[in-house]
Automatic annotation (TrEMBL):
GO terms for molecular function: medium-chain fatty acid-CoA ligase activity. Pfam families: AMP-binding. Residues 119-338 form the AMP-dependent synthetase/ligase domain. It comes from Pseudooceanicola atlanticus. GO terms for biological process: fatty acid metabolic process. InterPro entries: AMP-binding_CS, AMP-dep_synth/lig_dom, ANL_N_sf. Gene3D superfamilies: N-terminal domain of ligase-like. This is AMP-dependent synthetase/ligase domain-containing protein. Belongs to the ATP-dependent AMP-binding enzyme family. PROSITE patterns: AMP_BINDING.
Length: 470
């Protein structure tokens, strides 16, 4: 299967532009693909060091389409962490920027080169097509094993559902080594569109100059992306060319969701709220744009070809509306499973087409789903089960502050970015839950450390404060 089935007849069509001046046509991608196919043995394991630029994109596509097995990694991954991954998985090749190492290139293009790291690759399943880490740039050895057809299926249904065409210019600022960022790129390529790649911060002059110069027609962001845009009041800019806003990668605060839905109504744009995971090659479901103004926070229904359902504590399927259960997904985009060492690359399909998301959700009477939290994100305080995710939303909505909750079954630690409300937060949660104020301790932080996908990095919260909260 291929992302480029219909684009080889338009070799001059621009496939991608980046914010450093790089340009790739569909024709040049085809030439590079042929060079890889003639030079590099298929079924080799390749680590691909990525930034949002034309060289990274060209390498990823050439590797994948030539039958090699790439693992996409952040080009800024710490050297020690990268060495750990190389030791764990023994890749045969590395695709990297020319200046990254002094090894002689086997193939070079767009400022990147392919170099040899070892004489052979580990034994791999014939089903294995692609690898992504579950943890962004943290260097965790836990990988998600994709099979042939996963990425293509998700790209096709997203491109079709969003109505992407060859005239589309999609702005991709999410990292391409992150599943949602990669899916945005793949969907545009499947449609024969032009991908606009940016490594710049949303708050930088460079990003907005790139935006102005190339007039994107679509943009995909995570909730934190839109939080920045809303705070900067940038939803009010004149951008008649921008027709599609898509969100994924976590639950968006209700206030921001409402603002995006209202903005879409005012401007005639389409706002797609989507839901996904690395384990499902990115996206599982979407909320129809016309429902966004009516169903704040909903993840909607599955993309065509997928199935979402709920199960209760006893494992039986929940069919009644408004009853919470674990959200489970089935579809052709469900991956093979996980790998934690090179010996796992030979494994077959351990997921067997079904992914247990670990999210707690309910379905309304119209069949649209709403995620309410994580099954693992609960504390048992004074004998009562309390949701950390729900507590975060309550505090954020009540006080208009960023909030993160953690802790133990002895005490919940509540982190906020407003130092003036600490006592009020503790009192509010006690009154809301009916638990003693001693069950909660509020802390001030200037800002939260976040992952590549914009989610709060709970592991990075001050360990000493967490311990004190217990």
């Amino acid at each position: 299967m291929s992302f480029l089935p219909s684009n080889r007849d338009s070799p001059e069509k621009i496939a991608a532009l980046d914010d450093k001046g790089g340009v790739i046509t569909y024709g040049s991608l085809s030439v590079l693909l042929d060079e890889f196919g003639a030079t590099v043995p298929s079924r080799a394991l390749v680590f691909c060091l990525c930034a949002n630029d034309c060289g990274s994109l060209a390498g990823y596509l050439a590797l994948y389409e030539s039958g090699l097995v790439p693992l996409l990694l952040d080009v800024s991954t710490d050297d020690t962490l990268l060495e750990n991954l190389i030791t764990t998985y023994s890749p045969e090749f590395l695709w990297c920027p020319d200046a990254y190492c002094e090894k002689e290139p086997i193939v070079s293009a767009f400022g990147y080169k392919l170099v040899r790291l070892s004489d052979s690759s580990p034994h791999m399943s014939d089903q294995l097509s692609f690898l992504l880490t579950t943890s962004g740039s943290t260097g965790s050895p836990k990988l998600v094993r994709h099979k042939y057809g996963n990425l293509e299926h998700n790209a096709r249904v997203v491109a079709t559902t969003f109505g992407l065409t060859r005239s589309e210019r999609g702005l991709c600022q999410l990292p391409m080594h992150y599943t949602m960022g990669l899916n945005a790129i793949n969907s545009l390529l499947y449609a024969g569109s032009t991908v606009l790649l940016s490594n710049s911060s949303l708050m930088s002059k460079e990003f907005w100059q790139f935006f102005k110069d190339h007039e994107p027609t679509s943009f995909t962001g995570v909730p934190y992306s839109y939080e920045i845009l809303i705070k900067m009041k940038l939803l009010k800019i004149e951008a008649a060319h921008l027709k599609i806003l898509a969100s994924g990668g976590g639950k968006m605060p209700e206030e921001n969701f409402k603002k995006l839905a209202a903005n879409a109504v005012e401007t005639g744009r389409k706002f797609f709220s989507t839901y996904g995971a690395t384990e499902t090659s990115a996206r599982m479901s979407y909320l129809s744009p016309e429902k966004a103004i009516l169903k704040t926070g909903s993840i909607g229904k599955p993309f065509p070809g997928g199935d979402l359902f709920l199960v209760g504590p006893d494992g039986s399927e929940i069919e009644a509306p408004d009853v919470e259960g674990e959200l489970i997904y089935r579809g052709d985009n469900v991956t093979l499973g996980y790998a934690r060492k090179k010996e796992d690359l030979i494994l077959g399909d351990t997921f067997e087409g079904e992914y247990r998301t670990g999210d707690v959700a309910y379905r309304d009477k119209d069949g649209d789903f709403f995620v309410v939290g994580r099954m693992s994100r609960f504390l048992k305080l004074f004998g009562h089960r309390v949701s950390l995710d729900a507590s975060e939303r309550l505090v954020a909505d009540r006080f208009g502050t960023d909030c993160a909750c953690s802790g133990t079954d002895k005490k919940m630690a509540v982190f906020v970015t407003n130092a003036d409300i600490l006592k009020d937060v503790t009192k509010f949660l006690a009154e809301t839950t009916g638990l003693p104020k001693t069950a909660f301790k509020a802390y001030f932080v200037e800002e939260f450390v976040r992952t590549d996908s914009g989610k709060i990095n709970y592991k990075a919260l001050d360990a000493s404060v967490i311990e004190a909260a217990g």
